[in-house]
Prior knowledge:
The chain is an alpha/beta fold and about 190 residues long. The protein has one domain: Pyruvate-ferredoxin Oxidoreductase, domain 3 (3-Layer(aba) Sandwich), CATH 3.40.920.10. The chain is built from eight helices and six strands; from the N terminus they run βαβββαβααβαααα. It is globular. The two termini are about 25 Å apart.
Amino acid sequence: xxxxxxxxxxxxxxxxxxxxxxxxxxxxxxxxxxxxxxxxxxxxxxxxxxxxxxxxxxxxxxxxxxxxxxxxxxxxxxxxxxxxxxxxxxxxxxxxxxxxxxxxxxxxxxxxxxxxxxxxxxxxxxxxxxxxxxxxxxxxxxxxxxxxxxxxxxxxxxxxxxxxxxxxxxxxxxxxxxxxxxxxxxxxxxxx
Length: 192
């Protein structure tokens, strides 16, 4: 793999984006690739916008994805997805949780949450994977495993062996939470 590939993770603080970026990066490292990762936290650790750049290939020189070069937008919330759609390549892919989190203006009643976000995403990127992350996480036994459900969905798009994903999660997830997260991962893989 001589070409650099780019994954942009986007969502809201508290959704497990940083753990997801760690797992993805670990998979790439175990596959023998050069990986660069960068995280940008919003004003609030929990509830603010969070973005993580993951770049991988034979040799990667910068951790920031240039505008218009995102190969996969891996997003945990619909509005955050729409915010970052302009950064995708024309042939880019979207993997998104169908979850809506109201920003402060919407929560206060000063604004309305935009309508038709899923349709907007699918119109621009027809191969988008819309994942019902919360219901799959609940089926796994813990609503906090939405990020692992989404990692499972993403793992089907990327051409890395399932065993690498399992090993990366075993390294990154505490032992007491591993079983429920592995179940969530498998449900996500089945969804995609």
